[in-house]
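Recall that a protein's primary structure is simply its ordered list of amino acids. Everything else, from secondary elements to tertiary packing, is in principle encoded there. The following example makes that idea concrete.
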Amino acid sequence: MHPTRKRRLLLIVALLAAAALATTLIALALQRNVAYLYTPSEVLKGEAGGHARFRLGGMVAAGSFKRASGTLEAHFAVDDGDARLPVVYTGILPDLFREKQAVIATGRMQGDTFVADEVLAKHDETYMPKEVADKMGAAHKKHGVQDDTGMPAVGQ
């Protein structure tokens, strides 16, 4: 093989190896930062499985919100119509956070309680995050529950 061709071939192989290494590192970094969305019933069924950190979506259950006196620790339950999961969050909750409203909390399970690092609330009276609405709708279709608007009934 001619020395010029050999040099070009080595350069191409080195570039391909560098591209493969960069792609692998990017994929690993993205995989670690992915937070999957689960509903309380999916979490209780064990579908969240080995995910150390994930998002929990549903509605804040009526009558479940309590704040520890003198602290920023909030306790509430997230409901998807089929199951409830207790949540603990330490921090300032969004202004629009309230009972019977859609919420997505990011965090991890600790025993039977979801410990949230971040809580996101809906932004107006008609909004529910699409992922939460889809998962809750699928759960209610399974049970045949709908309200008078044709939308899946939540919290029944």
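Strands lie at 36-38, 54-60, 66-67, 73-79, 84-90, 102-110, 113-121. The helical segments are 3-33, 40-44, 130-143.
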